[in-house]
Design goal:
This protein is mainly beta and about 475 residues long. The chain is elongated, with a radius of gyration of 31 Å. About 30% of the residues are buried.
Length: about 475
């Protein structure tokens, strides 16, 4: 009887509860929608390109080490995050650009925290308060952080919530489509796309394929040459040896790149940097390698067929010795004899030539290799102030007297790269086999570019053909 009474009371209470709750309007128990409200930022927004303009003015007055120090100010910048450290290819930094599509200016921000993608993910808009921060050039790119002596250091992690305010907006980033030959300082720190490219053929040889950054000589970054199939111009793809995808094999096909344009550690060469491997879309099976002379390479003989080290020569002497030095675009730019440290060589650079387009040929005297065996060409080459790979080497068996209408065959010569603001070392650009040519030949060095866009300097020395 006691148990029945308890059940009766429980049933009665349940019935009353159902009755009460059924009388309450349904709307009062619906879960409200979560609305991300845009934060209110007190102050004046300064565009990223305006801030970079201020830095440019300071550099003009004070030199490359100039800095802009933001004191007690309410100014701020806004931008979209276009980098990601999710794959560990960026570290303690984010890259901001001014808009999510068709960007015009970008900036690098150092942050003493890791990881950052959980807070400032790709496509997130952020507001960055400038009070107490400093802006300067570091590793060749505009960098924002805190001033520490002569350098820009990372924003401390404890002040992030005060300095960097997350917007509610996360959007798709449309890469800015550019070509390698279009690179300028204004494109730095932007999310870009480059189409119609491939990795250098020496990186994808069957049985000797390179990884992105896991080779024995990759110390901090793996640097891999990417080439344009349209123009042959090249740039370096840099991948951290700490990245999650450092061990991926380089694709052998043609395709496109999406990622950030920056510079190398020394700040003197343009570099491409991936957020993740999905930025490499290489899905065109055929390659665009130029057709080059492919003769079997045997052991070099000891008979010297031709030799020129330019010792004791002046520029005017080249023509007297049978060389052709021709600017076929009609300008005055030509090859000249140069010297350094008691060594003479032939040199060329389009710097300050004021010729917007030039094609200049240096062609050897006619050489008779018809009766010799296993001819091999060697020469030394040095590049400097490199803003593009613009030297090619050819051979012809039917020189017409005019480089423009001669049938040339490209040689597989090694053309070195160099820093943007210095010289590289002399390297051996051979051996190149000429064993399958039995005729009178000329070797041609073609320099093609335009001032000021591409003006790389080259020194050519110790040209030699040996045979058995």
């Amino acid at each position: 009887m006691h148990i029945i009474n308890k059940l009766t009371r429980s049933t009665l209470l349940l019935s009353i509860s159902i009755t009460i709750f059924s009388c309450v309007p349904k709307e009062e128990f619906e879960i409200p929608e979560l609305v991300n409200q845009e934060p209110e930022i007190n102050g004046v927004e300064i565009m990223i390109d305006a801030v970079l303009g201020i830095l440019g003015q300071e550099i003009e007055k004070e030199g490359e080490n100039a800095k802009v120090v933001f004191g007690d100010t309410s100014n701020f910048i806004a931008g979209y995050v276009v980098s990601s450290d999710k794959g560990s290819n960026f570290f303690k930094e984010i890259i901001l650009q001014d808009t999510h599509k068709n960007p015009q200016a970008g900036i690098r921000v150092l942050i003493d925290n890791n990881p950052l993608f959980t807070r400032y993910e790709f496509g997130r808009k952020v507001y960055l308060k400038l009070r107490g921060l400093s802006l300067g050039m570091q590793n060749g790119v505009a960098t924002l952080g805190v001033s520490e002596g002569n350098t820009i250091s990372a924003i401390p992690s404890f002040s992030l919530d005060e300095v960097i305010i997350r917007s509610a907006e996360v959007t798709d980033i449309t890469p800015r489509v550019v070509a390698i030959e279009d690179f300028t300082e204004k494109l730095l720190n932007l999310y870009i796309k480059i189409n119609n490219i491939q990795f250098n053929k020496n990186l994808v040889k069957v049985g000797n394929e390179f990884t992105l950054a896991a080779e024995a000589n990759d110390k901090f970054d793996g640097e891999r040459i990417v080439e344009s199939c349209s123009t042959g111009r090249s740039v370096v793809l840099s991948t951290s040896t700490f990245s999650d995808f450092r061990g991926l094999k380089i694709p052998s096909q043609q395709g496109s790149f999406e990622g950030v344009l920056t510079k190398n550690f020394e700040g003197d060469t343009y570099n491409l940097v991936l957020n993740d491997p999905e930025g490499l879309i290489f899905d065109i099976e055929t390659r665009c390698d130029p057709i080059v002379l492919e003769c079997p390479l045997t052991n070099e003989g000891s008979t010297i067929v031709f030799e020129e080290n330019f010792t004791d020569l002046k520029t005017k002497d080249l023509e007297e010795k049978g060389w052709i030095n021709s600017n076929i675009t009609g300008g005055k730019l030509n090859y000249k004899i140069g010297d350094f440290a008691n060594n003479q060589y032939v040199q060329i650079t389009g710097f300050r030539s004021k010729e917007s387009l030039y094609e200049v040929w240096l062609i050897t005297p006619e050489l008779d290799i018809g009766m010799i065996t296993d001819a091999v060409l060697n020469f030394d080459l040095q590049a400097g102030y490199d803003n593009g790979n613009i030297l090619d080497v050819f051979v012809t068996r039917s020189f017409t007297g005019n480089p423009k209408d001669t049938n040339w065959i490209k040689l597989d010569a090694t053309i070195p790269r160099a820093p943007l603001n210095a010289f590289g070392d002399f390297i051996a650009s051979g051996p190149i086999s000429l064993s399958c040519i039995k005729d009178r030949i000329r070797i041609g060095f073609r320099y093609i570019g335009g001032d000021p866009r591409v003006t790389t300097r080259y020194h050519i020395d110790n040209i030699k053909i040996k045979a058995r």
